[in-house]
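User: Continuing from earlier, I have the next pair ready.

Assistant: Great, send them over.

User: Here they are, in order.

Assistant: Folding the first of the pair now:
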Amino acid sequence: MLGFVVLLFAFGVVAHEPVFGNGFGLQTAGAGAVIGIVIATLASLFGWRWYVTAAAAVLSYFALGGLIALPSTTIAGIVPSLQTLQLLIVQLANSWKDLLTLVPPAHPFIGPSVLPFASGIVAAIATTLLALGGRWLLALLPAALFAFIGAAWSVPYAPNELWWALGFAVVTGIWCAVNTAWDRADRGEDVVIGAEASAAARAAGGAASRTETGTGRLRQRQRVANAWWRRALGVAGALGIGVLIAAVLVPMWADGRARTVLREYVAPPLQVHDLPTPLEQFRHLSTDLIDEELFSVTDLPEGARVRIATMDEYDGVRWGIAPPVGEAPGFVQIGEVVASASEAVRPNGSLDYETSLIARQPVDRWVPTIGHIEHINVGDEAVANALFYDVNGQTALTTVTPPADLAIDVAGWVEPVWSESQLAGLPLGSAPVGTPQLVPEAVTALALTVTQTAASPLDRARALERYFRDTGYYANGIEYPSRPGHSAARIAQLLEGEQLIGDDEQYATAMALTATSLGMPARVVIGAYPEHYAEGTISLRGSDMHVWVEIQFDGVGWVPFDPTPPKDQVPQTEVPEPRSVPQPQVLQPPEPPQEPPQLPTDADDRDADDPLEAPVPFPWLIVGSGSALVLLLLIPLIGVPLVKILRRRRRRKSEGRDGVRGAWHEVTDAAVDSGLKLGTASTALEDAELLELQQPLDGAAVTLARQLGAAEFSGAHVSPESVREAWDAEAQVRRALFTDGRWARMRARWSWRTLRRRQRSTRKG
């Protein structure tokens, strides 16, 4: 029976692995199932009450939960810490949501692993107790529920998912067949197959009686005749149904169709399209902090750029981040391992990298990244626990204020620096083309004029890039006047003026708008990269801040374009302009149709709908209550053998008739705890004879029963020698009862049978 239970739970354990990865799902779910099966087996052997079983489950959960599910929170990897106990309590409620709202694989996250561990313990206890109790059909429900949790809380694609499901169905069918045969045997039915066997059964009258060994009673055995062709037809029908189901389901999974999982419905992305973007601070970052170190990067790949944010939605006032469309996940919470983007096709020639980056002065809550990240390790725990990432936009954001000198270790890959020959002739990518709002009329006219002779998408993109870079002038308000911002009014001023005058912010916006007007999927990126790449550590200052445009091409992804003129290409003027004073922060100019958004401050101004709240104080009340509950549940577990020890001492101290009676009570209690049966209304001598029938006791029980009868009814004084003889007989009976060794004595010591029996007899009296 236990072998079947283990086999049933093996399928549920496997179902928890895809969402965790790295073997962590197998570890947590498997350990929970094994612990549950062991607890239920011990409860069945020792006859534990439900609250003792619950106490053992709770104790095992808290004692082993840190080692198995939360090893990073324990002391020396074994001893649970206060954080371990806190998470084991809180994650009983939160892990269900956390596992659905994070980006798989989940093994780097702290907390979601509590779900398979806790559910494995509970489901295994329920299944094992029901199976050992004879309710084998009902026992399938917890095991099936455990497997369902593993699949529903998993990922849409899992290896060999169909075959594991079919295997679970086969094992379930075998389970039902075997248990049905056992039930038939318990009812006394012998099934015979074949014509000769059927004729013999009918000639014998169909029934025969015999004595069952070990039960001491008669059981009626009945032979049930069954034709062989009926059995064969039943087997063929079952196989046919199985083949039909497989024929329908296998092509479905063979086509690679995604299965429906809960994370598709309850994993909302982080809403960031209304948040101020770093582009609104570009003038402040590039001028006020022109000589200050913003980032320190080690081993930056040649041509790679540090990305702060990617923006793809324009409303006439500012660039923002559009809400996710279709299957795009948007911003989702991540751990150390990052899943690949749905549109990230890794081209030939891409470069793997491992980089250490330090954000000396973080830009609000935006976390810098490089290329397509696959692993990220943030030095600050609060930032790491509240880190969100848009895999399509390659942008990271945290919901807490990051500290200065934030250390980030990141690994992944970057596209190569494409040559013109590699990009020539490629069609545009399949990303949706944005619909900017309140775009100046000059944008469309300029786009058509500049690209009228371009033949391919790359030619049109290069024509726009060359136009702005070659005919424009660079001015950021330090040497020459140049208004900040990128609103529709500011872009109209740029395009309609006598000269194109601006910095990265205006030129990137103008090119992205003109490219979008031509049907190109374009977006604006703010970040930093050095003027000259070198090995080792590179310092990126305010002067290295840039804004560029990315346009998607089929097969190679998003290709960067730099429309900003060189910084030494200054405006042509006859009258020197006064030096402008850098402003402490950059807001949108007053003439736009709506008020520009304010820059986020360093204060803790978390919105009410932030997906992650700030770290809460340690819940002493919850931990204390949980600890008190554990101690309360442990009291019966510890108290059973203690009560029996005190009871035996009290009986041994009794004298006279009470001493002999105490010896007899010890014998009957030991017999009941070892699993033997006593009569409900029988005398002591009858009980002794019944015990001798069930297990040989060398007549010691009968001798003690006669001594008890003499002490109770003779009226004579019971001497200390008689009491000593009674306890000697008790010791002889106890040795005969526990001939199986220490295990039998331990099982009897933890049994509750006699405590309940004494309580009932006391109430009757």
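And the other member of the pair:
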Amino acid sequence: MSGFGWEEARFPTVEPSTLDILRFTLAGVVLLPLAVFLSVCARLSAASRMRRLAALRLLGLSRRGTQRVNAAETVAAALLGAVLGLVGYWVVNQSVSRIGLPGFKWYPADGSLSVTTYLVCLVGCPALAWFVGRVGAKKAAANPLAVRRSAVEKPPRLWGLLPLVPGLAIVVGYCVAGATGNVPTDTSFSAILMPLAVVLVGTGLVLSLPILSRVLARQVARATNSLSLGLAMRRNEMEPGGALRVATGLVLLVYAASLTQGVLIELDQVSKNTAPVQLYTMPLDYVPEKTEQALTKVPGVRGHAVLARSWTDPDREERPSINVVIATCAQLQRMAPVVEGCVEGRPARLFVPGQSYDEASLPGTSYPLHLRNADGKQRVVPVRVPSRTVRYHDETDAQMAGSGAVLIPPSALPAGFRPEERVRLALLGSAAPGAVTSVLEGIAGVDPTIEVETAGLDPASLQQITVIKTLLAVGMILGLVIGVAAYLVAATDRAVERRPQVTALALLGARPRTLRAVQVAQVVLPLTVGLVLAVVIGKMSESSYLVTGGGAVFWDGAGLPLLLASALGVVIVAALGALPLVGRKIDPELIRRD
């Protein structure tokens, strides 16, 4: 029996604590819009379906029989949808896994679903559909006359504001704590309280939309003198639940986008190098000269130098030695913004402001530097500490070379020879995450076995950030698709159900322009209210999350313009999407049939 590799990686791609944050964020970005989409689909053609079920009830079908009819139809649709969804996921996994995502690749087997997942989809979804179908037909089975006569919808209850109040209290409390400098230190308590606040605020935001839409519609209808706006607001006042169906998916998407931005900011603080530049050091003990030259030419590297240490006798108790920097003045100037007094071709002692000289680096003292070439020949070159100095200071957190290091030009060494012990190659580049990733990939392309040390940066954390950003981007795209789909389904279904009312208004003399203005106002007003609340509450939730994250950034205003532009784009798309829902053709048969 033989095998290749291991079943699991030595180190996880994403740390478990970070993975929990990712799961929670994706649940808010994807599952909340998905729940709204499913609820919208469950109410698809609700009015006409309820009237049909009420007719069956009036014809003599029992109450349970009426509920079973609706449940059976829902189960059949859910089972078909589950099968299509599983087949679609298999196709997407097989294709995308072979292409990969930016910074994230996997094998098709890694993305295959377990037996439990198949059972949940093929059994759990129809079971849930059965329950929803029975509950959905309860009204038609219990009071069919009210359904057939289009009874007035009950106004939303104030209990819908109940989840929003405690959620906002927690969020505001953390925001005040961050503003006053009283940052909470009990992370275990915040780890429970903060997710609870996010769920409460998200749920309260959804449930409060009908209440706020009804109140606002009533006030606008009383104050306006516009016929189209008055008709639209009176309709929203009589049917505030329509705002919940049409606007909720897009509102939750904007709310989740704020939370996603907060997660990215916190993770960026954890893994980001605070210095503007990134230093890479790697041993050159067994690296050929051609490989060394190729490493210095990796895209993104703006400067390089060779660092070494003078030879010490292992048999002596005292082993004084000095640091040696092998570079030209031009190379040194590309490594640091402050290089003063450097003369090309002449050795010098480096002086870093704010640092004391190395005790062993005394002018006039000589130290041996053992060299070796590619053929294995050895030579010893004495390095005398010069009296002249070069003022040096780079932008790294820990200086590449401290005070007392001796700068030696490469021309001072024999051709083809370089230090043989404790010699390292230092590369310098930008600290931007994209630049760091590019340099690391370039180094791996030259020599994938070389060991690279990155001062002030954990490459594993950088890889985790890349994977998390990719997954969050995929989640946001899925959430956007689901939110837009929920809006299109709800808006179209609502327009189809209201065709008799639109036809009646048209026969009474209402112009098509007026009817389109009514349709747009009915959609845009509750959506605008919801988006404003989502932006404000979302930014507050984001700030409270950053306060509990332990980072230095609590308030983020960089992403606010993009969030506002996205919200405005959502309103424009919703308005344009509502225009074609009022047809040009007037069919009086719709009224007679109803």
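Worth noting for the second one:
The mean pLDDT is 77. The chain has 18 helices and twelve strands.
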